[in-house]
Design goal:
The complex is a heterodimer of chains A (486) and B (290).
Chain A (H helix, E strand, L loop, with lengths): L1 H13 L6 H12 L6 H12 L6 H11 L12 H12 L6 H16 L3 H16 L9 H12 L1 H14 L6 H34 L1 H8 L14 H22 L13 H8 L20 E7 L5 H15 L5 E6 L3 E3 L10 H11 L11 H12 L7 E6 L11 H10 L2 E6 L13 H5 L4 E4 L3 H12 L8 H12 L1
Parallel strand pairs in A: 1-2, 1-4, 4-5, 5-6
Antiparallel strand pairs in A: 2-3
Chain B lengths: L5 H10 L6 H13 L3 E4 L6 H12 L2 E6 L6 H4 L1 E3 L1 H10 L5 H8 L5 E3 L1 H7 L4 E6 L6 H13 L1 E4 L3 E4 L5 E6 L7 H5 L2 E4 L5 H11 L5 H15 L9 H13 L7 H11 L3 H19 L1
Parallel strand pairs in B: 1-8, 1-9, 2-5, 5-8
Antiparallel strand pairs in B: 3-4, 6-7
Helix pairs in contact in B: 1-2, 10-11, 10-12, 12-13, 13-14
Classes of the chains: A alpha/beta (486), B alpha/beta (290).
Chain lengths: 486, 290
């Protein structure tokens, strides 16, 4: 058991979940108190001791499924009859007979309709045996077998049949009930899909050993996803994480100096308070220093090459807008426009994105990035509104399509502001390759950060909070941040 | 009362009106066995604080609650010396020698115990609830570490106060920020998310007396459907219960679009959310008509 747990913890660490020594010991301790025969109990015990963030639950689930697969061995519950079809199907390259298929789909249909999970699982197992055509030792991933199985089963047709059957019981005039019934069917199909996936995974484990399967199933955690190539569902995961991050950023930037007793002594209130202790001034009262009100200008490149990242930065902007009263956002492609008004309170993010795409005037000539012109226009239109309290954040890949970059304009903008940071979603090694002119702009910035993942964004937020950066003097700002950025 | 096994925990919790799922029962049981704090995380209104209260009831312990907020410090969480009383003592003993007085004034008598110290010093076993721990600054978290791992408090003038009985500690967090590694390491982690439709139905039947099975099922399914939408704030369990109560008070026996549009504001608190949900639910109406 200890070996197994050690392997399991090793796998979690390899998947990116931080597990400390103490937590590993806790897990061993916890396992002593539970009934090992119960899989759910084991999962709860390991989950509670090893995984300390809901973000990592999914990675944990996958690893757990691989390491502690159902105690029944894959396929062991099958009748001899179905074993023989198994032999047949592998000969035929994973294609069971049509009669088998129909019978199987029918039994799946019945079990789903009645919500009979046990028989659904059994049917799913049979489906995998018949149609996945798993060949021992063949080095293909689970998705390949999943695809083969699902193609034969034709889940869409199954869904339609189920829907028809379920809707027959529902009053057609009752639209609400219909909607609910539809969702029920969706969730049943999703469940079946997951069961098939799990079953394939179990067989792969039986075939190749758990360590190697776990390795192939490993997926990047949310915070390590590449923002430039994030898919839609990745972005949804990211959305959940972004809210706490912006709150953190807001707290860091607005950090009042209340921890330091830097204010002047408030004599009157000190005397008043001392009355409670017989005239002895036990607690001197200090004047509160005025809270610092940060003002943030965000400039986002929303050109084609930045499409996915732009969606993310706008999402970030949207989340930030609810924390900063003085946040102004701008978008640019080859010219710049202010979009602050689209992010007001109570405006839906989807609507805001749509409006920006159609209404914001970020295109001047041809819709290819032109940083030089954008900065010049920005300086012309909004330059007067930048104050020494303004922090500017630019996001973009600095790919300027070989147009004049005008870094001197950026330097001029910088000289009016408190600080200027640049977040670039490309890997550092790509900077200055092709039409990227990052280094030209870099000298005008207080800090240039590679932000390809949420983790790096978090790192940026953390840097901001170090004393002497955002809240400190300008001389103090430029040097250390630039070093860390590098 | 100690907790014999997870199944018992679950049924005991159910007896006091808290319907736990398997995972919750398991973690609570382990926390009791390993004498470790539980860190409960999840969206607002899924019953994190309720869990602590229910735990106190089933184990027959006193509940001591520390509500966290920004700016919470030692003197409000741990202990504070009672300056005024000390001062009086000094004035009363002004003829005595200083070393003698010093010994006198730093005695337990002059100590004002705040929730954390109170939980440690209590003679009877307690449940200590540290609510919304994510609201304190990261530096303040450090205050909790000694208590959470060793169940003791060090007071420089007095020495170390250790717990006589091990308190059952529950920390809750709404996950507005990442808690420090040091804190997480000391706790068992329990993430509670919105319940499955089936369990939510049970909760409704339990918490809203007089509701019909049909209504409970319909409400639970509808709420699940609404939670599936992309909203600013998904309805919490507490709001679901409120909604059920509202519908019961209006003596509604079947929910249709009209009922939804009239009462949705009980469930959703943002205008944009209400409009979005209406649109999503209304869209199926027009689809069915056409």
């Amino acid at each position: 058991m200890i070996d197994l747990l050690t392997d399991f913890i090793g796998e979690l660490r390899a998947a990116g979940i931080p597990v400390s020594m103490v937590e590993a010991i806790d897990a061993m301790e916890a396992v002593k108190h539970i009934n090992l025969g119960e899989r759910a109990a084991l999962k709860a015990a390991l989950g509670a001791t090893l995984v300390k963030s809901a973000r990592h639950d999914e990675a944990f689930d996958v690893a757990f499924e691989v390491f502690f697969a159902h105690h029944r061995q894959a396929g062991s519950e099958e009748s001899p009859a179905s074993r023989s079809t198994n032999g047949f199907s592998s000969e035929a390259g994973g294609g069971g007979g049509e009669a088998d298929l129909d019978a199987l789909v029918e039994s799946l249909f019945q079990s789903l309709l009645q919500g009979d999970l046990a028989s659904m699982e059994a049917a799913a197992r049979r489906a995998v045996t018949e149609f996945a055509g798993i060949e021992p030792g063949r080095p293909v991933g689970g998705t390949y077998y999943l695809y083969r199985t699902l193609r034969r089963l034709d889940l869409d047709a199954l869904r339609d049949r189920l829907l028809e059957a379920v809707l027959a019981d529902v009053d057609p005039a009752d639209a609400l009930d219909q909607r609910l019934a539809r969702e029920d069917v969706e969730s049943m199909i999703a469940r079946l899909r997951k069961e098939i996936q799990d079953e394939i995974r179990r067989r792969l484990v039986a075939d190749r050993g758990r360590l190697s399967v776990a390795r192939t199933l490993r997926q990047p955690l949310v915070e390590d996803l590449n923002l430039m190539h994030a898919t839609r569902s990745d972005l949804e995961d990211i959305e959940d994480v972004i809210e706490p991050l912006t709150r953190k950023l807001a707290a860091r930037m607005a950090r009042r100096r209340r921890l330091l007793r830097s204010g002047r002594l408030d004599f009157r209130r000190t005397v008043r308070k001392s009355l409670a202790s017989g005239g002895v001034p036990l607690d001197p009262v200090f004047r509160k220093s005025r809270p610092h009100r940060p003002e943030v200008f965000l400039l986002c490149d929303i050109s084609g090459s930045m499409a996915t990242f732009a969606r993310f930065t706008l999402q970030f902007t949207y989340a930030m807008a609810s924390h900063f009263s003085r946040l102004r956002s701008f978008v640019f492609i080859d010219t710049v426009d202010e979009v602050t008004r689209y992010f007001g309170p109570g405006i839906d993010f989807g609507d805001a994105i749509g409006k920006i795409a159609t209404e914001a005037e970020a295109v001047w000539l041809d819709g290819h990035s032109d940083y030089g012109n954008s900065f010049a226009r920005f300086q012309e239109r909004y330059g007067a509104e930048i104050t020494p309290r303004t922090t500017l954040i630019v996001t973009g890949d600095a790919r300027n399509n070989y147009r004049p970059g005008k870094p001197e304009v950026l330097a001029e903008i910088r000289s009016q502001a408190r600080a200027l940071y640049w977040l670039n979603p490309e890997p550092r090694s790509y900077w200055d390759s092709g039409d990227s002119i990052m280094s030209k702009y870099e000298s005008a910035c207080d800090g240039v950060f590679e932000v390809r993942t949420l983790r790096q964004l978090e790192h940026f937020v953390e840097q901001l909070s170090l004393p002497g950066h955002l809240t400190g003097t300008r001389q103090g700002t430029a040097q250390p941040v630039a070093n860390i950025g590098r | 009362m100690s907790l014999p096994d997870p199944t018992e925990v679950r049924s005991a919790l159910a007896d006091v009106g808290y319907l736990a799922d398997d995972r919750i029962a398991q973690v609570v049981f382990l926390a009791d066995r390993l004498a470790k704090p539980i860190l409960v995380e999840g969206p607002a209104g899924v019953g994190k604080t309720e869990l602590a209260k229910a735990l106190a009831t089933i184990t027959d312990r006193r509940l001591i609650r520390l509500q966290c907020y920004e700016g919470l410090d030692e003197s409000k969480a741990l202990y504070e010396w009672n300056y005024k009383k000390q001062l009086l003592r000094i004035q009363a003993d002004s003829d005595k020698d200083w070393t003698e007085i010093e010994e006198d004034i730093f005695a337990e008598e002059f100590l004002l115990a705040r929730p954390l110290l109170e939980a440690i010093r209590s003679d009877s076993p307690v449940v200590l609830l540290i609510d919304e721990v994510d609201r304190v600054e990261i530096e303040t978290e450090a205050l909790l570490l000694e208590i959470l791992s060793d169940f003791q408090v060090s007071i420089p003038e007095l020495g170390t106060v250790s717990a006589t009985t091990t308190p059952l500690v529950v920390l809750t967090s709404n996950n507005t920020r990442e808690l420090s590694e040091a804190l997480k390491r000391r706790c068992l982690f329990l993430h509670i998310s919105y319940p499955e439709a089936e369990r939510e139905k049970e909760i409704l039947l339990h918490r809203v007396p007089g509701i019909t099975e049909h209504m409970a099922t319909q409400i639970a399914r509808l709420v699940r459907s609404i939670r599936g939408m992309d909203l600013k704030k998904s309805p919490s369990v507490a709001e679901t219960i409120d909604w059920a109560r509202t519908l019961l008070a209006l003596s509604i026996e079947h929910i249709d679009e009209k009922v939804v549009s009239d009462t949705l504001h009980v469930l959703l608190k943002y205008q944009t959310d209400i409009e979005k949900a209406m649109k999503a639910l209304g869209a199926t109406v027009s689809a069915a008509v056409s």
